[in-house]
């Protein structure tokens, strides 16, 4: 039986990856922070599973990471999905973001080396946010980002992710670790955190629906609606993480849909799903949700993943919106 460790198991991706690995017959150790409230909502139906063990640990604490790895030196695959993952929050808490999202990755990589766990494979959750303002032009004259596009990070989060990404490459080359990084573009779904823009929109629609579309329901407050994002479905993307660690050679891969849409277009689609075309009267633009620097345009090219991993996204924007709106409209009815 293969064994895996997931740092960040209580998050959106961690919970999908847990489902995937258990379905493939893995034994899984999930690492979660100890909090004053229960954070295991997304994995609650897995807690009693005999092949799943939840342990407490914090990736900012090197000794905590070391102890978890030492207790599991026979582990086949280690996935680092733990992060302070909110870009807007990273401007307000840059130090914490650095400690978790940047240094946390070093803590894991260094422990792997110090314990001599060279047989374990490592996955790092890198991000399209690392591209920031940078892009290339494809053969159709459109902006695009792939594995060769330079990074021009626009947030403390992106800077921390770049540092972790370079650390993966360094540890691969310096120590021969089987360490891969997935440069994942935005991916969403019914388990997405409620402060990310897609889920904020679909959750608001669900809550409004439950009031019987009350005219006095507080409006949806959003920031910049003009940014473009390449949105996929989280369930599709964790398959790509797993595939990366099944390759003989470690490498970095862009994972995306290749399609891009503005927040406005997401609103069109989400409100359209409940039969509303003119959503503007329900939305207030609030400067609170603008960022000091913005990433205006993300659209990936995942040709390398298609060719080498034989990975393709299965869900398009319409499917994604349907999953999310229907989930939020029907939640707790
Ligand atoms: P998420 O829902 O915010 O999950 C983050 C996870 O990290 C949570 O389980 C969180 O635990 C855990 N965590 C935070 N600080 C920690 C610490 N100090 N020690 C241990 N665990 C800690 O994020 P996600 O959407 O699943 O994303 C997974 C990873 O992919 C993240 O690294 C993110 O930056 C990256 N990424 C995400 C996307 C995307 O579009 N979703 C795209 C590219 C890259 P709590 O439950 O206690 O908060
Ligand atoms: N969160 C949020 N809330 N974003 C808003 C809002 C709002 O009220 N209004 C407009 N936006 C805009 C943001 O300014 C940004 O341009 C876009 O919506 C997407 O914001 P998020 O959903 O917060 O995602 P993100 O693109 O900043 O970051 C996500 O994707 C990255 C990959 O590119 C996160 O999942 C990161 O962890 C991930 O690395």
What does this structure look like?
The chain has 333 residues and is an alpha/beta fold. It has a domain at 3-189 and 231-257 and 299-306: Rossmann fold (3-Layer(aba) Sandwich). Helices cover 38% and strands 17% of the residues. It is built from 10 helices and 15 strands. It has helices spanning 12-23, 62-70, 87-92, 94-114, 156-175, 197-210, 234-246, 263-272, 303-309, 317-330; strands spanning 3-7, 27-32, 52-56, 77-80, 121-127, 136-137, 143-144, 178-184, 187-188, 220-222, 228-229, 232-233, 252-255, 261-262, 283-285. The strands form 5 sheets. The protein has a 7-stranded parallel beta sheet with strand order 3-2-1-4-5-8-13, sandwiched between helices. A two-stranded antiparallel sheet has the order 6-7. Residues 85, 87-88, 127-129, 185-186, 195-197, 200, 222-224, 227, 229, 263, 289, 291, 294, 298 line the site of guanosine-5'-diphosphate-alpha-D-mannose (GDD).
Shape: globular
The strand count comes to: 15
Structural class: alpha/beta
CATH topology of the domain at 3-189 and 231-257 and 299-306: Rossmann fold
- CATH class membership of the domain at 3-189 and 231-257 and 299-306: Alpha Beta
Number of helices: 10
Percent of residues in helices: 25-40%
**Largest sheet, if any?**
7 strands, parallel
Task: Kindly provide the radius of gyration, computed on alpha-carbon positions and rounded to a whole number of angstroms.
Answer: 20 Å
- Unreliable residue runs: none
Compute the separation of the termini in Å: 40 Å
Read across the widest sheet, the strand sequence of neighbours is 3-2-1-4-5-8-13
CATH architecture of the domain at 3-189 and 231-257 and 299-306: 3-Layer(aba) Sandwich
- State the fourth-level CATH superfamily of the domain at 3-189 and 231-257 and 299-306: NAD(P)-binding Rossmann-like Domain
User: What sequence of helices (H) and strands (E) makes up the elements?
Assistant: EHEEHEHHEEEHEEHEEEHEEHEHH
* Chemical compounds bound to the protein: NADP nicotinamide-adenine-dinucleotide phosphate, guanosine-5'-diphosphate-alpha-D-mannose
């Amino acid at each position: 039986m293969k064994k895996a460790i997931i740092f960040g198991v209580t998050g959106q991706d961690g919970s999908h990856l847990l489902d995937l690995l258990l379905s493939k017959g893995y034994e899984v150790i999930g690492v979660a922070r100890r909090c004053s409230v229960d954070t295991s909502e997304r994995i609650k139906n897995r807690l009693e599973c005999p092949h799943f063990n939840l342990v407490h640990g914090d990736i900012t604490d090197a000794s905590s990471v070391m102890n978890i790895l030492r207790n599991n030196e026979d582990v086949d695959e280690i996935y680092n999905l733990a992060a302070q993952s909110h870009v807007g929050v990273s401007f307000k808490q840059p130090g914490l973001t650095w400690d978790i999202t940047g240094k946390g990755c070093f803590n894991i990589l260094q422990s792997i080396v110090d314990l001599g766990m060279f047989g374990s494979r490592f996955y790092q959750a890198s991000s399209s946010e690392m591209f920031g303002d940078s892009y290339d032009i494809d053969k159709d004259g459109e902006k695009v980002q792939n594995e060769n596009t330079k990074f021009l990070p626009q947030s403390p989060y992106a800077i921390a992710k770049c540092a972790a990404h370079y650390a993966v490459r360094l540890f691969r080359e310096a120590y021969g670790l089987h360490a891969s990084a997935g440069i994942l573009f935005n991916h969403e779904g019914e388990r997405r955190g409620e402060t990310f823009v897609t889920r904020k929109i679909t959750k608001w629609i669900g809550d409004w629906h439950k009031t019987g579309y009350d005219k006095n329901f507080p409006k949806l407050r959003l920031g910049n609606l003009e940014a473009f994002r390449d949105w996929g479905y989280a369930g599709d993307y964790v398959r790509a993480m797993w595939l990366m660690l099944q390759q003989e050679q470690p490498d970095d891969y862009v994972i995306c849909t290749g399609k891009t849409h503005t927040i406005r277009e997401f609103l069109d689609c989400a409100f359209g799903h409940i039969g509303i075309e003119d959503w503007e009267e329900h939305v207030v633009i609030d400067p609170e949700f603008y960022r000091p620097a913005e990433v205006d345009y993300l659209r990936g090219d995942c040709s390398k993943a298609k060719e080498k991993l034989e990975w393709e996204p299965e869900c398009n924007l319409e499917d994604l919106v349907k999953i999310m709106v229907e989930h939020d409209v029907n939640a707790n009815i």
